[in-house]
Design goal:
Layout: E1 2-3, H1 16-32, H2 37-51, E2 56-63, E3 68-76, H3 82-90, E4 92-93, H4 97-104, E5 109-111, E6 130-137, E7 143-151, H5 159-201, H6 210-224, H7 229-241, H8 251-254, H9 262-269, H10 271-279, H11 287-295, H12 316-330, H13 342-351, H14 359-371
Antiparallel strand pairs: 1-5, 2-3, 2-7, 3-4, 5-6, 6-7
Amino acid sequence: MSVSSTPTAAASPGSPEAGVLELTLQLTRLGLNAPDLGSAMIPVLDALVAQTSAEGAGYFQLADQTLAYHARAASGVMPEGPAMDALLAHGLPRELPLISALEASPDILYFQDTDGEPAASGFPELGVCALIAAPIHDRARRLVGALLAHVFQPHDWSPPERHLIDSVTGLLTLLAARLDAEEREHAAHEGALRAMGLSLEARDAETQGHTDRVTALALRLGQRFALEEGDLRALRWGAYLHDIGKVAVPDSILLHDGPLTPEMRARMELHVADGVALAQQLPFLPPATLDVIAGHHERWDGAGYPQRLVGEQIPLLARIFAVCDVYDALTNVRPYKRAWTVSETLAHIQASSGTHFDPQVVDALLNVLADATGLSESA
C-alpha cells in the first residue's frame, strides 16, 4: 500500500497536467449543475474509468441512519457475487478495515495488490486486486464519503493516474459538501411536507393512509415514465400536498355522509385553488409540485376543473397523479361509498381512458400493477 504524495505544479499548455485541469473544470461544471449527489458523481466516475486503468469505480456516502457508507454512484465493471450483493444492500460498515484506515488518514490509499494488505481486507474476496481508496472529508474532518476504483488484476498505479485521482478527490470533496447539505435540506422539507399531508387525514379517519398509498403508487408510475430524480421529488411533494387546500373546507362538507349537493360540490372544488395559494407560500417548492396540486382534478377531455385543460395541456405529473388518486379513492372506503375491488376499479379506469385519463398513463398504470407483487382483490 502507498499513499498519495503528488506534488502540485503550474500546468503548461499541452501537458498532461493541463489535460487534467481541463477535465477537472469540465467535471466541475457538470457537478455544479447536477440535481443530486449521485448524478454529480457519475461523470466523475466515468472519467476515472476512461482515463485510468481502473475497470470500475464507485462512490460511497455515509448514511447517518445506518452509520455505514452506501453506494451512491458507480461506473464500469463492478464485482459480482453474494459478497457484492451484501455490500450493496448494507453498505461499507464503519468497522471495515479500509474505512478505519481512511478515517485515520487524510491521504489517498493505493493498493497494487490487495492480497495480504490488512487495510484492504475483504476486497480479495470480491475479486478486486488493485484498489484506490480516496477519503472525502467534511470541514470537521469527518469521513463522509469514499471514492473507490479497482482493477481485477495487480496494477501499479502510475504518476499520471495518481495526479488525476488527486485532482478528482478535491473536486469530490467540494461537490459532496454542497450536495450533502442540499440533500439534508430536502430531507427536512420531505418530513415537513409529508406531515402536512398527513395532518389532513387526522380530520377524516376514512382516508387514513391515503397520502402514503397514493404517493407510493405515483412514484412507481413516475419511474415507469423514467422521470428524473428532480421530477420524482416534485411528484412526491405534490402527492403529499395535493389536497392541502381541503384544510379550508368546512367539516360539514368534507365529512358529509352521502353525495354532495351542487353548492357543496362548488365549495369542495375550491380546494384546488386554495391548495395552490397555500403551496405558493413555500418558496422552495418546484413549479412541478404546484402543477400536481393545480392539475390533479383536470380531465383529458377538458371536462375537469378548475381550468378545464385538455390533453397534454395538463402537465404530465398531474396526469400521473390523477389516475393514482382515483385508483386509491375507489379501492378504499369513503363516507359516501364502499371500497371497490381492484377488478372493478381497473375496469372503470380503462373505461375512462381517453376521457378522464391520459391513455398512455392508464396503460402504464396497468403495467405497474401487473408487475407488482402481493396485489390482491382486497387492496
